[in-house]
């Protein structure tokens, strides 16, 4: 259980930093943007991301529990890299208000999530499956981000 707690602390620390970056402009700059069709209400994002971060932590824990840190250096390295890029997106989009740079970054993030999912799947199918909703949500986020760049 201590391992699960450690992975959850890590992913939710990143979520907290991303939330802080988001708070820098979600109340004033973001509402002024023209958003694409299908953009969910703002209240949806927090709960969705909370669930996704929980699934990420659980997936990493499954891999760690199965083979340890030394048994999956590539898979867990990919996981940490995508986690860093996830935070970077919030900083770029909300922190520095650069949706264009955030779009370029998320186009790198998505294949990295896919690579992580595949690497996790090879070690523990449950861990891979736990990343599917995250991969799909980030695909949707690409649409939203691209729409914002296009419309603004």
TrEMBL record:
Coiled-coil ranges per UniProt: none
One Pfam family of this chain: TspO_MBR
Entry-linked InterPro entries: TspO/MBR-related_sf, TspO_MBR
Origin species: Thioalkalivibrio versutus
Keyword Ribonucleoprotein assigned: no
Signal peptide: none
Subcellular location: Membrane
GO cellular component, one term: membrane
Keywords noted in UniProt: Membrane, Transmembrane, Transmembrane helix
TM spans (from-to): 43-64, 76-96, 102-121, 128-151
CDD domains: TSPO_MBR
Annotated GO biological process: tetrapyrrole metabolic process
Name of the protein in question: TspO
Membrane topology qualifier: Multi-pass membrane protein
Record keyword Glycoprotein present: no
Family affiliation: Belongs to the TspO/BZRP family.
């Amino acid at each position: 259980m201590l391992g699960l707690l450690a992975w959850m602390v890590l992913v939710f620390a990143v979520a907290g930093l991303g939330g802080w970056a988001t708070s820098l402009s979600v109340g004033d700059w973001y509402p002024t943007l023209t958003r694409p069709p299908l953009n969910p209400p703002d209240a949806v994002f927090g709960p969705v991301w909370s669930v996704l971060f929980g699934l990420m932590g659980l997936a990493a824990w499954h891999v760690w529990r199965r083979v340890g840190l030394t048994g999956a250096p590539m898979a867990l390295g990919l996981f940490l890299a995508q986690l860093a890029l996830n935070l970077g997106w919030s900083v770029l989009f909300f922190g520095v208000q650069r949706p264009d740079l955030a779009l370029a970054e998320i186009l790198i993030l998505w294949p990295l999530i896919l690579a992580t999912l595949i690497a996790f799947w090879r070690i523990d199918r449950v861990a891979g499956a736990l990343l599917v909703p995250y991969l799909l949500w980030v695909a949707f986020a690409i649409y939203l981000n691209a729409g914002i760049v296009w419309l603004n």
